[in-house]
Amino acid sequence: MAEPGGYNQSGRAPKATPRQKVLDGEELSDYQMRRRREFEEGVRRNRSNIGEWLRYATWEESQQEIARSRSIYERALDVDARSQTVYIKYAEMEMKNKNINLARNLFDRAVTVLPRVSQFWYRFAYMEELVDNVQGAREVFDRWMQWEPEYEAWMAFIKFEQRYKEVQNVRGVFERLVFVHPEPKAWLRWAQFEETNGDADSVREVFGRAIDRLGEEHMDQHVFISFAKFEVRMREHERARAIYKYALQRLPRAQSQSLYNQYTVFEKQFGDTNEVEEVVVRKRRMQYEAMVKRDPRDYDAWIDFAKLEESAGDRDRIRDVYERAVAEHPTTAEKDVWRRYIYIWLFYALYEETQARDVDRARQVYGAALDLIPHERFTFGKLWHQYAWFEIRQGNVDKARRALGQALGRCPKNSLFRSYINLELELREFDRVRTLYTKHIEFNPANCATWVEFARFESALGEETRARAVYELAVEQPTLDMPEILWKAYIDFELELGHTDRVRSLYERLLKLTDHVKVWISRAQFELDTQGQEAARSVFEEGDGRLRDVGRKEERLALLEAWRSMESDGGDIESVERRMPTRVRRRRVLDDGSMEEYFDYVFPDDTQGSRFKLLAKAHMWKQTQHSE
Q1: How many Å apart are CA 617 and CA 628, to the nearest integer?
Q2: Ranges of H-type helices in 411-513
Q3: Phi, psi of 587 (to 5 degrees)
Q4: Which of 87, 84, 89 minimizes the C-alpha distance to 59?
Q5: Are the C-beta atoms of residues 97 and 66 closer than 8 Å to each other?
Q6: pTM
Q7: Mean pLDDT by 10-residue block, N- to C-terminus, for the chain (628 residues)?
Q8: Are 224 and 216 in contact (CB under 8 A)?
Q9: How far apart are CA 5 and CA 58, in angstroms?
Q10: CA distance 626 to 628
Q11: Backbone Cα Rg of the chain
């Protein structure tokens, strides 16, 4: 039976809907009455389904019944007064029918109820600007800014004022922006605006205020870089040099790398950089030499040392540092110790490929690194992956495949399989991908993520039967690391295809394997969405009985709370309330003989059963007394 609005039970539009021709007014009235009755029945059965309300209102609008559509939107807002979708659709309907005042009032209601939802403000201001009510749009922005929204909202206000060339208003908005969001990017945008619309003194004033306001604790190097570049554009080179030196003296080294690089570029263009650069590099070189001499296996220091030499650009020094670093290999076969050491090889190979442009030497570096690793104990997928992609960049696809195949043969691991699969996916070799997934599953059949990725791959290729077969093989495995992810993916797969009977069958199979409360709740929600409250109620009753039999009181309570939530929407909530437990405080003896208090839940059927047992014991005692 079709649901109201022309949708079937799965929520999808049917493939072929018969078209109905209306010949006269009486037949039109009958058709409209019948459709309204269907919609009203739909919203009565599931009042909280906002989508049903929207379809109802849209249909009334299509019948040119604007007043009725407006009434339905209002009823929907009575159900959920904070639904963003209802407000937006409602306002679009009013604007479409040129009811600007009504749309304005609706947006005013929306921003009053939900002032933190940005899209309401954006649409409100856009509507006012669209009808040439510039002052009204400005007032909307002013109201919005009182809530101190995110940075992007302020920029929208500024762009609005710039469109109408209100320079003073833009400055006023920037004043408020840097007070609410005193971030470097806000000051930089203000300085950029002043450079375009003001004079040099205004820009310097903005940068000066930014430095004073941010202070040394929150200062950002990009503020100084922009300030210095501005002075360079003004041909004030001494000012720019003073700014760079001032910043380098106050900012920590870790936070001023870009600043130092820009200062180097500046001195190369407008000054004598040799002495400055050489002094800095020599000082840092001495520091790193001392660090690696103190601890020859401080691999982080070696990496920083090599990067320093790369910035200096002396190829012989760079290779010397890398060769000295890789010579200090770990003495123990522990992967955690080797991890940072391998990064030195990776950076070395990247330098030879990208900066030195020596492909043969880069290949030798990769080969030496791979020969050094004890693959019988462990391996590093990142190294194999980077080497394979290096060969891809050189056009050697076969060599890349051989490298990854060798890796899987010597020390297979999940990351290597994923890397090889991603490579073949990039090359669009789907048969190879399928083969790799099969090998990956043979290597680790308990890995649910691999099963799910394999099935999704087949589904993406339109192979629904193959995907379903993969899921079936997966759920039949005796051991799985995360079976809940696998079952959820399988159920979602069938839901996307609209196979409700298959989904129901999957839930039944899953509930034979587990009594987890989330599975019961998910099954009930599925039945509620497809068949209604009666079917969901049956699932809740069955789950309550199962959890009662296995004695899981807390999970049973969670199930009953979910059931009560469903019944609260026009259902039989009293029957659920009668099943709710009572929370009691009890005591128990611990292993060390001490007493511990704890909370327990006593369900009505548990209380009744305990009373029957007490009466039975009393009856037996009475019979014993009579026999004596």
Answers
A1: 17
A2: 414-426, 430-443, 448-460, 464-475, 483-497, 500-513
A3: -125, 150
A4: 89
A5: yes
A6: 0.49
A7: 48 57 72 85 85 87 86 87 88 88 90 90 91 91 91 92 90 91 89 87 90 81 89 87 84 77 77 63 78 88 89 87 88 80 89 89 88 78 84 86 82 84 88 89 89 89 90 88 88 88 87 85 86 85 84 85 83 81 83 82 67 50 62
A8: no
A9: 10
A10: 5
A11: 36
Query: What is the spatial distance between Cα 138 and Cα 355, in angstroms, rounded to a whole number?
Result: 53
Is residue 95 within 8 Å of 103, Cβ to Cβ? yes
Q: Which residue has the tokens 């320093």?
A: 308
Q: How far apart are CA 307 and CA 351, in angstroms?
A: 10
| Residue 585 dihedral angles phi and psi, to the nearest 5° | -100, 130
Nearest CA-CA partner of 385 in 414, 356, 355 = 414
568-to-65, 223, 555, 601 alpha-carbon distances in Å: 32, 57, 20, 22
Predicted confidence at residue 3, as pLDDT, reads 46
What is d(CA 467, CA 461) in angstroms, rounded to the nearest whole number?
9
Phi, psi torsion values for 447, nearest 5 degrees: -80, 100
Single out the residue of 165, 230, 232 nearest to residue 199, CA to CA: 230
Neighbours of 90 (CB within 10 A): 26
Spatial separation of the C-alpha atoms in residues 2 and 91, rounded to whole Å: 29
Cα–Cα distance for residue pair 89/83, rounded to 1 Å: 10
